[in-house]
Amino acid sequence: MSTVGGVSDPIVVMGICGTYDLDSANGRMLEIILNECEEHMQGKVETVIWDHGANPLPLVGAEGCWDDPNVKGFQEMAVSADAFVLSSPEYHGTMSGVMKNSLDWLYSKHTSGKVFGLICTLGGQSSNNTLNHMRIAARWIHGWVAPEQVAIPNIKEAFNDDGSLVNEEINSRVSSLASSIVENTIKLRR
Known about the structure:
- By secondary structure, the chain is of the alpha/beta class.
- The protein has a single domain (11-188), classed as Rossmann fold (3-Layer(aba) Sandwich), CATH 3.40.50.360.
- It is built from 6 helices and 6 strands; from the N terminus they run E-H-E-H-E-E-H-H-E-H-E-H.
- The chain has helices at residues 25-40, 69-80, 97-104, 108-111, 129-140, 168-188, and strands at residues 11-17, 45-50, 83-91, 94-95, 115-121, 144-152.
- Strands 1, 2, 3, 4, 5 and 6 form a 6-stranded mixed beta sheet that branches.
- Helix 1 crosses helix 6 (168-188).
- The longest helix has 21 residues, at 168-188.
- It is globular, with a radius of gyration of 16 Å.
């Protein structure tokens, strides 16, 4: 475990959902992967999720946006995080507008040298477009994107009644991504 200021601190992983409702497929995916991160190093990982439904971010450039308290809270949460998980639905071949706007409010001073894990959900067949676009955005703000990534096709059939993933291969990929986020954060943490 790395130390900050000589004191061993838990890793903080921040989830950012590409929908306003955390009671969505992407909200559920964040819950699953953040639980995996916590289980990977019990007691050494804390997780937080920005709730767009309760605290929506204004569009960048909208009147009054620069002084919006939700923006300040979002950026403060990002500064306190050691790593991020982005989970977005794919709309028209790319990330959702909610996800893009969230990333537009983050700058390298919030994210430089921090690990990003990427998840996307799709209504039909699997595609990497959203993952690629989120990767480009995360790298642009100096984030380190984990090489593992997860695309969940046919999202309406992806969950069992208890909320667990139906497909064991996808479940295994989520577990690998969670491990990569935690292990690489330890390596990169300053």
